[in-house]
Design a protein that fits this description.
Elements lengths: L8 E4 L5 H12 L3 E6 L2 H11 L3 E5 L5 H14 L3 E6 L14 H22 L3 E10 L12 H20 L5 E8 L6 H4 L4 H14 L8 H12 L10 E4 L7
Parallel strand pairs: 1-2, 1-4, 2-3, 4-5, 5-6, 6-7
Helix pairs in contact: 1-8, 3-4, 4-5
The structure holds NADP nicotinamide-adenine-dinucleotide phosphate.
Length: 250
């Protein structure tokens, strides 16, 4: 590790699992102090134990604005500032258009769109001039994905936020980029409402659509998040960086 994030304060939503957890581990290995969130307290504690040092946990739901206020008041108290925000909490379930319920739609948009929007809004006062905001989108933001359309549309909204906020925050020298994973080996598929067998089939189906021939690992997203978080990407803002084994690029 290079210590490339020495003394940086990073907030990672959805840091108790998958991509967020791998990124928290890597950020700490690179010298950062991290604050991680997620709704499931037990998993947060387990994640903190794995990360081992320089980690604070705050349980909460990103779609609940009071929870977000509580998160950032802990960050204010503990660190007094934010240098890096990885707005990563999210997910989605599958449902065909013809039968999808209102709660299916609301749950996805409340977390992935509203939750992310207010996560960034409420973090802003803690940024000093300069900093990096990374939004987890998905390569589904440019793909048609049957039965996963509410999710894909929510991630297109996230990609759009990176464009607009790049302009809104340019005077403060805050860079905003979206990071779009392809299929990554995390618990997300199991949570999408698929049976174990369907999840296995979906994973194999995804792998067959990826030029590199496999699903990615959370650590392969984490290393790109380090790049976007650090000064190594100092001239990059407003982009959508796909980390998808080429799946949506060819
Ligand atoms: N895995 C993939 O193939 C893939 C591909 C493209 C994009 N992504 C995106 O990558 C991000 C991370 O997903 P992952 O694959 O790492 O899955 P994961 O392991 O299921 O992680 C999702 C994280 O988000 C948190 N979260 C979900 N809803 C939340 C809410 N309402 N409030 C607070 N935290 C919430 C979860 O914690 P709690 O459940 O404890 O709240 C968990 O920490 C998501 O935005 C996902 O859409 C994943």
């Amino acid at each position: 590790m290079s210590n490339i994030l020495a003394n940086k304060v990073a907030v990672i939503t959805g840091g108790n699992s998958g991509i967020g957890l791998a990124t928290a581990q890597r950020f700490v290995a690179e010298g950062a102090q991290v604050v991680i969130t997620g709704r499931r307290e037990k998993d947060l504690e387990a994640a903190a134990a794995l990360i081992g040092k320089n980690v604070t946990t705050v349980a909460g739901d990103v779609s609940n604005l009071d929870d977000l206020d509580r998160l950032f008041s802990v960050v204010q108290e503990k660190h007094g500032r934010i240098d890096i925000l990885f707005a990563n909490a999210g997910g989605g379930t599958v449902a065909p258009l013809a039968t999808a319920s209102e709660s299916h739609f609301d749950q996805i948009f409340d977390t992935n769109v509203k939750g992310l929007f207010f996560t960034v809004q409420k973090a802003l006062p803690l940024f000093q001039d300069g900093g990096s905001i990374i939004l987890t989108s998905s390569n589904a933001n440019v793909l048609g994905v049957p039965t996963f359309t509410a999710y894909a549309a929510s991630k297109a909204a996230v990609r759009s936020f990176a464009r607009g906020w790049t302009l809104e925050l340019k005077e403060r020298n805050i860079r905003v980029n979206s990071l779009s994973p392809g299929p990554i080996e995390t618990p997300a598929l199991e949570k999408a409402g698929l049976s174990a067998e369907q999840a296995e089939q979906a994973a194999a189906g995804f792998a067959s659509q990826v030029p590199l021939g496999r699903r990615g690992k959370p650590e392969e997203i984490a290393s790109v998040a380090v790049f976007l978080a650090s000064d190594q990407s100092s001239y990059i803002t407003g982009i959508d960086l796909a980390v998808d084994g080429g799946m949506a690029q060819v």
